[in-house]
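[Discussion] Sanity-checking designs against the backbone

I'm trying to build intuition for which residues belong where. Below is a structure token string of 449 positions. I'd appreciate it if someone posts a full sequence so I can compare it with mine line by line.
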């Protein structure tokens, strides 16, 4: 029988949740490692800037209890990538507090490795001075020391190297700071001696849980099996199946090129991949990998403003027919009222759900609905300004007198009281760049607990 290595992926993001039955089916199938991605920048810069997790502590502990106990029961490693969502020290410590709580309840003391993904501002500034920092894309400005100074925290996406080092040193649980999403999965397979190209391609699929299945879901478990010449993926729930089309389609997911995928120190070429259905599993082969000059992606966020917002509904067809005109008039009235506040100190934004809130000017369907959800926000340089202007927008829009209006009771219906919500700080990405490094291990400190 050909040798193989099985990696159990419980879900797309730790804390999303997954059926216990699927996970137990995976454990019964004899995995060699449990690997889970816990982070993303999909939610924007707020979680990184504010230092808060993507998911609730309750959800994270519910998932981690199954993962930690499953790994310890089976005597296999557990690897968590991008702990806490954004993978900065505050997020990693939050995750560690949960794991340590679970271990204390179990009375276990496994060998635990923490791989920090934080990058010091001094390190980034030195790299800027040496010309070693580059924008991720054309619409990202060159990074300056001034931008770095305003950034709350900076993390870097690690590749497989520090995770491999922790596995070589006998780690039973590995908690990673910010990681390139496929890297923790790839590291497990590479450690076991399998083709890095297959390992990274498999990691690209497993990091999203069962999203490559039909029906797809990031909230269910999937198994990946590495062989010398291929890998196979199959769902762990009887409600799902992997098809050649579904797995091939997921290979295109979140890439700016049809078959080339850049990562820390690697270029993965998937042009010659083959996908073969085998029952409810799919066998995949053909990936190629080249080692390229090592760059790590830096992510950082800065405090940009403060926000207050209101959610309301409108059903008057006369109001809906003129809603853009009314909203422009309301903004003019509010700005005239607060003429002592510099115009650049705040912005008023309207989103009319049911008309064009999702696509804006690109919306091709222009027929007006019978009701509209109106969301408006004020973003300002202070919370007081945001809240004051937002309240003025709400009261002005509520009572704005437009031509043909038949009732003066109010133009808006509010689902909540109070209607005005103080959101608080708003963050923006201030660092979204690549940094040249000598190797993939040096920037990331490994701590043993």
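Best answer:
Here's mine. Compare freely.
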């Amino acid at each position: 029988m050909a040798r193989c290595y099985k990696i159990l992926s419980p879900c797309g993001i730790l804390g999303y949740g997954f059926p216990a039955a699927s996970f137990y089916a995976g454990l019964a199938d004899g995995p060699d490692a449990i690997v889970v991605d816990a982070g993303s920048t999909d939610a924007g810069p707020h979680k990184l800037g504010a230092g808060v997790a993507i998911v609730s502590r309750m959800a994270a502990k519910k998932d981690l209890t199954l993962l930690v106990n499953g790994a310890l029961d089976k005597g296999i490693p557990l690897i968590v990538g991008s702990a806490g969502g954004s993978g900065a020290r505050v997020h990693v410590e939050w995750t560690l507090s949960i794991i340590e709580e679970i271990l204390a309840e179990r009375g276990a003391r496994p060998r635990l490795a923490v791989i920090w993904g934080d990058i010091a501002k001094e390190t980034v500034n030195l790299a800027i001075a040496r010309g070693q920092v580059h924008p991720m894309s054309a619409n990202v400005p060159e990074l300056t020391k001034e931008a770095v100074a305003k950034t709350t925290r900076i993390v870097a996406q690690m590749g497989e190297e520090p995770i491999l080092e922790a596995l070589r040193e006998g780690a039973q649980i590995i908690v990673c700071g910010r990681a390139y999403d496929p890297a923790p999965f790839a590291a497990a397979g590479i450690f076991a001696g399998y083709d890095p190209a297959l390992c990274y391609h498999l990691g690209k699929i497993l990091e999203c849980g069962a999203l490559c299945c039909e029906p797809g879901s990031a909230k269910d478990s999937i198994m990946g099996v590495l062989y010398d010449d291929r890998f196979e993926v199959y769902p762990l729930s009887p409600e799902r199946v992997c098809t050649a089309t579904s797995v091939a389609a997921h290979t295109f997911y979140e890439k700016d090129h049809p078959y080339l995928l850049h990562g820390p120190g690697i270029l993965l070429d998937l042009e010659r991949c083959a996908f073969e259905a085998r029952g409810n599993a799919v066998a995949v082969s053909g990936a190629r990998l080249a080692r390229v000059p090592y760059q790590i992606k830096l992510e950082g966020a800065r405090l940009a403003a403060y926000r207050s917002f209101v959610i309301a509904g409108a059903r008057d067809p006369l109001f809906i027919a003129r809603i853009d005109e009314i909203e422009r008039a309301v903004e003019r009235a509010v700005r005239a009222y607060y003429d002592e506040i510099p115009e650049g100190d705040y912005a008023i934004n309207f989103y009319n759900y049911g008309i064009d809130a999702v696509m804006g000017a690109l919306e091709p369907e222009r027929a007006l609905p019978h009701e509209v959800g109106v969301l408006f926000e004020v973003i300002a340089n202070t919370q007081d300004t945001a809240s004051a202007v937002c309240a003025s927008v709400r009261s002005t829009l509520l009572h704005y007198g437009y031509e043909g209006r038949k009732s003066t009771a109010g133009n808006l219906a509010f689902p909540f009281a109070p209607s005005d919500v103080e959101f608080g700080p708003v963050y923006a990405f201030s660092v979204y760049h690549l940094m040249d490094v000598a190797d993939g291990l040096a920037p990331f400190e490994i701590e043993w607990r």
